[in-house]
Amino acid sequence: MERIRKRFNNTSLKNKLLSIILMSAAVILACSLCGSYLCTMLYNELLFKTIAGNLAVSSYSISEKLRNIETLSSSIISDPTVQEQLTALRESDDAIVRSNANRRLNAILLSHYESFKSNGLAYIALYNDTFSNCTNWALLSKTDPGMVRTARDNAAPGSGAVTWNYRGRDDYMLLTRNVLEIDNLTFSHLGSLMIALDLDKAVTDSNRAVTLYDGSRYIITDKDNQILYASDSLSDGDAAYFMDHSVRPYQLLSANGHTYFSVIGTLPHYEYRYVSLIPFDSIETSLKLAMGLMVFGLFLGFVLVVFLSRGLVCYIVKQFNSLILKMQTFREDKLPPTIVEDEYSLRQDELGKLHQQFDQMADRIQTLVKVNYVNELLTKDARLKALESQINPHFLYNTLESINSMAKMNGNTAITQMVSALGNLLRSNLSHHESLVPLSYELELVESYMTIQKIRFEDRLIYEIHASPSLMDISIPPLTIQPLVENAIHYGMEEMTDECHIIVDTFLDGGLAVIQVKNEGSYFEPGLLEKLANRETKPNGFGIGLLNINQRIQILFGDAYGLSLCNQDSYAVASITLPYRPKPPEGGEEIPNTAAGGKRHVQTDNCG
Predict the structure, then answer these.
(1) What is the pLDDT of residues 376-430, one digit of tens each?
(2) Which residues are paired to 508 by β-bridges?
(3) 571, containing H or E segment
(4) pLDDT value, residue 456
(5) In percent, how much of the chain has pLDDT > 70?
(6) Any idea which of 135-149, 338-352, 498-512, 570-584 has the lowest mean pLDDT?
(7) How far apart are the C-alpha atoms of 246 and 255, rounded to whole Å?
(8) Cβ atoms < 10 Å from Cβ of 442
């Protein structure tokens, strides 16, 4: 990941913008494809459920036709005229009576046939001991005599109950019932009724009423999986295949190179299973075509976005390159003294403003170089010469050495210590010009300064310097710690009438080198540095020095380091954080060094 990030950072602006656009377009394309796929799946599921619902309704229609045929049979066997005429035929041998009975029975059967023929009714036959009646003798003659005889035999033990008879994929299902005498509740046998149901007509009419799809097919089997009906376009093998492979309420099945949508279920009120099929080839082709067009449209849009984005990115990058070329020319000092207005001078967009600001900056820099820079050099040179004429370091060192010699001759140790310490301080301030010095050098200056102050304040001042050997070689700006110590003595001794403790401590905190100056008797205002930087608090005495120390450290090392102020217990604490680069210690363990004049103090917490 880091390697990819570095390569991305080092690539050109054009490639970065194109990468962002390509990734965004790819994400949008992927999301669109996923969304389209999900929408297609949901649409297909809804379509399947709708088709399945329509096909399932056909089963109710077929079942209703079967029940209507049963209702018709009940109406016929209970019809008073049928009962009367069959009774008359049984009890009379008169030819006229029999002729009238035959005529009336034919009329009644035709009337019932006309009322129920929309239910797939083929014909109605009524048998008695004398003769038989039928609404369509031609269709009856085409019915297998053996099947008719079996159907009538099955009705004999039924005592008037409905018996459905079928044999394989025959044209008709036969309903047979015994006609029993109802008067006086004798229930004696009067004859038998047979009604032929044209299954193909019933199924076709039912499917035509509930589905919009042409070419639908239907299969009906009994509880033993024997096929009762199958559409003419289906062979026995195809019908068996669809019945065996239809295992879900609705699904897609393929056979003979075609796809079918199948719905399986049971006819309501009957133990007959059915499979309803519609050709799905045209629907599937339409769905695939719509999906293909949608995917093609998305990819075409992706290509157009990439093409147009590339042109726009090249146009924008060209303007950035123009600005870079202008900067390079300026760096090589080839720009004319006055920047000539070009096409960007009147533009209000960001690139136009960048060009305008750069032109103005280049013009001002040229002016500063030609006028102010020379004057500034002359002024600085004059100031340096003035400072050099004001003080001669050799004269000052010789004078202090003479004072020190006289103090030693007179045995005045305090004056000797003060003069030596002051000489060290002056020598450091006047002769050291590096921007960074070792921490050990800075602590030596602090030691010299504390020596002078100790002689001045005697027992009232107790100071400690804890120097960690592993930190002695780290770099620090010169005169960074000494001003903090001076501030601690000034404010601590000003408020304290008794002893004042001042501690200089150095230690490691994680990967940071920390230098703390603590003193009793004073208090840092919360957020003092921020208030001084924002000019919310007016600098008083040492305030400018605090900002100076913090800014110097941040300029040299970065904003992650610097000075922080806080209060801990009875101490005001100034903490300096610096980068720590480990170096193998030469002196072994880190042992705090306690300078003369103080108690031992152990650092236990790092505030701030």
Answers:
(1) 554 555 444 444 444 445 445 555 665 666 666 676 676 776 666 666 666 655 5
(2) 513
(3) strand 571-579
(4) 77
(5) 78
(6) 338-352
(7) 12
(8) 22
* C-alpha to C-alpha distances, 583 to 249, 470, 474, 579, nearest whole angstrom: 79, 7, 9, 13
| Residue-level pLDDT at 577 | 94
Backbone angles phi, psi at 523, to 5 degrees: -145, 130
Q: Which residues pair with 481 in a beta bridge?
A: none
Residue 596: pLDDT above 80? Answer: no
CA distances from 556 to 32, 434, 475, 477, 517 (A): 52, 12, 10, 8, 21
Q: Which of 225, 195, 261, 235 is nearest to 55 (CA)?
A: 261
- Is residue 264 within 8 Å of residue 246, measured between CB atoms? yes
Rounded to 10°, the helix 13-78/199-210 angle is 140
The 3-state DSSP class for residue 193 equals strand
Whole-angstrom Cα distance, residue 596 to residue 459?
11
**DSSP states along 513-547:** EEEEEEEES--PPTTHHHHHHTTSS---STHHHHH
Give residues with Cβ within 8 angstroms of 577, minimum separation 6. Answer: 509, 512, 513, 514, 560, 561, 562, 564
pLDDT at site 263: 85
- Asked whether the CA dihedral 437, 441, 446, 449 is positive or negative, the reply is negative
Cβ neighbours around 296 below 10 Å, total: 10
Q: Are 460 and 500 in contact (CB under 8 A)?
A: yes
**Which residues contact residue 86 at a Cβ distance below 8 angstroms, ignoring those fewer than 6 apart?**
101, 105, 128, 179, 181, 190, 191
Per-residue three-class SS string for 443-488 = HHHHHHHHHHHHHHHHHHEEEEEECCHHHCCCEECCCCHHHHHHHH
**Of the candidates 243, 249, 282, 242, the residue with the CA atom closest to the CA atom of residue 263:** 249
Q: Which residues of 53-75 are buried (b: 16+ CB within 10 A; e: fewer)?
A: ebbbebbebbbbbbebbbebbee
Helix axes 543-557, 481-495, angle to 10 degrees: 150
Distance CA 530, CA 537 (A): 9
Token duo for residue 93? 């041998």
Token representation of residue 74: 């009940």
In 136-272, where do the E strands start and end?
163-165, 172-180, 189-198, 217-221, 227-230, 250-255, 258-266
How many other β-carbons are positioned within 10 Å of the β-carbon of residue 163?
Answer: 20
User: What is the C-alpha to C-alpha distance for residues 209 and 58, in angstroms, rounded to an integer?
Assistant: 8
Residue 595 has what DSSP assignment? Answer: P
For residue 104, count CB atoms less than 10 angstroms from its CB and return exposed for 0-12, middle for 13-18, buried for 19 or more.
Answer: middle
Return the structure tokens found at 137.
């003798």
CB 21 within 8 A of CB 316: no
H or E, element range at 125: strand 121-127
Name the DSSP letter for residue 581.
-
**Nearest-5° angle of CA 102, CA 104, CA 109?**
95
Tell me, what DSSP letter sits at residue 157?
Answer: G
Whether the pTM exceeds 0.70: the reply is no
Instruction: Locate 512 and state its tokens.
Output: 């940071």
Edge-to-edge, what's the strand order for the sheet holding 132-134?
132-134, 121-127, 189-198, 172-180, 163-165
Q: How far apart are CA 576 and CA 513, in angstroms?
A: 8
The tokens describing 576, both together, are 């300096």
Q: How many residues does the chain have?
A: 608
